[in-house]
Amino acid sequence: MISQCSSQSVYNNRGSHSDDNNRMQRSRRSGRFWNQRISRRPADAYRSSLHILMTQLEFITELRSVLDRHADSVRNALRRLVTRVPGNARALHLMVFTNQEGDGQFDVFGSIDGPDHYFINKQIADVKDIFSVRHTENGFEPAVPMVDAFDAGFDVNDTVIQCVSEWMRGIWRTTDGLSTTVPVLIVGHDGISTTTSESCN
User: Fold this and answer.
1) Quick one: angle between helices 156-173 and 56-69, nearest 10?
2) Helix, strand, or coil here: 22?
3) What are the residue boundaries of the structural domains of the chain, listed by start?
4) 125 CB burial (10 A radius; 0-12, 13-18, 19+)
5) Interacting residues of 100 by C-beta distance below 8 A, sequence separation 6+
6) pLDDT tens-digit profile of 13-51?
7) Would you call 9 helix, strand, or coil by DSSP?
8) Helix or strand or coil: residue 10?
9) Are 174 and 167 within 8 A, CB to CB?
């Protein structure tokens, strides 16, 4: 219905201006975004200009370079996290969570596996964040590579999860003071389902 309405208003000049106005008014009243989509195009176009065309190897190389520059802050975040793992925890999960758009954005955070999931994770709520990538008007911050999943010749989310998981495993194994009494797993999630789960200790 939306595409038909749009094509009629653009290409069919036989109708009156009042017909087009009536369609727009009905769209507003019904909550459709027929006319709202036009207002979002400049922002979408600007964001598209930030996308980088690169090979999978170039993507991994640039991503790893950014990660390495934040290694010290991640080590400190991990040290804070492990001191707060409760005694009734069954495992500590280091979650690598990508978004569904597959543009390179992701977060790394801690999650406790144990009884009463909500309550046990509330105990680490203020220390669970390990590494976060945010959208800004100038691109990603930190400046990990931003790509268009439709133009990339590789699975961006899988590549991010594999690269970040490998990096996190190296950080864990080379950082002093990260001993725990529970298993530590790096868990990859692509915004839809869990894709990987690997032991860290």
Assistant:
1) 40
2) helix
3) 2-48, 51-199
4) exposed
5) 190, 191, 192
6) 334 444 444 444 433 333 333 333 323 334 454 455 556
7) helix
8) helix
9) no
